[in-house]
Amino acid sequence: MALPMNRVVGLIDMDCFYVGVEQRRNPELKGKPCAVVQYNKWKGGGLIAVSYEARACGVSRSMRGDEAKIKCPDIQLVHVPEVRGKADLTRYRDAGAQVIQVLCRFSSCVERASVDEAFADLTEAVNNRIAEGAGKITLSQLRNTHVVGWDDKAAEIAGKEETQSAEESVRCEEEKPSAEEKEIQRVHGVSAWLSTVYDSDEIDRCNDLHLTVAAAIVEEMRVAVYEELELRCSAGIAHNKMLAKLACGINKPNKQTILPDASVFALFTSFPLGKVRGLGGKLGEQVKQLLGAEYMGDVRSSSRQHLQQQLGDKAG
User: What would the pLDDT profile of 124-152 be if each residue is shown by its tens digit?
Assistant: First the structure.
């Protein structure tokens, strides 16, 4: 089976990074609702990071500390250090640098995107593993991995042909699946994905093989970051940086998501424009108004020439 030279990119995004750094400094904060706030203490300070325990109580980053305490009286607020009247982010930058050092052991090309995000080009690492005969990935190597377009195959893999009435369908849409049900769907989906990847000689499956091996490497990266630095992270794996970024946000926290080429179009049909980097502000509003687009799929149907005519050569 000929293996194509195909780029594979992982985006590693730290989960509640500022909170994670503070919980590492003060373990008593772990498992409790907490948030990191700006050094400016007006109305309790603006929240810049919120733990998942606090989010469950209705606390969000748009709030200030005083409002957060009303929503969640037990919340612990940690203020960013201040030096000479300005925020001192040294401890967070240092922690981010430590993460990069760990990632660089797995990839020779790591690009820091922000204090809590980094892209890793995994193409070389993937090709090396395949060449070494380590390209056969098992379910146990993908313990926290989702595959876009495959989680919903659980019923099919389990051999269940569901025929629901309209009333049952509405009820199922209203009832969110439990954590256990989600995990069952994930396991069935990843199992089906692996079977398809390794049971076909088609060229597109070679591309999927690269994504699968990359996902196994990213699982190892994330484990190393947690074991060495006590920080959790999520990740997206795709064939370019933009898609890896989109994939990363689909399943969080402490999860990772593969976005195969074959699933991109279906994802775009329901992926809001505002969630795409660079389209959350004025440009996004311009695209919505000029093209009547709400989702990425709406933009995809326009030609490059049409986009450039409407938005200009640079933005189009």
Answer: 999 999 999 988 999 999 999 999 999 86
Helices (H), 87-178: 90-103, 123-131, 154-157, 166-174
Q: Which of 83, 86, 87, 78 is nearest to 35 (CA)?
A: 78
State both tokens at 67.
Answer: 């409002």
Q: Is the whole model's pTM more than 0.70, yes or no?
A: yes
SS3 assignment, position 29:
helix
What lies within 8 Å, CB to CB, of 257 at 6+ separation is 145, 146, 147, 148, 235, 236, 237, 247, 248, 250, 251
pLDDT at 163: 40
Residue with tokens 């690009």: 111
Task: Report the alpha-carbon distance of residue 300 to residue 307 in Å, rounded.
Answer: 10
Half-sphere exposure of 14 (CA within 13 A, CB side): 29
Could you tell me the strand order of the sheet in which 76-79 lies? 47-50, 34-37, 76-79
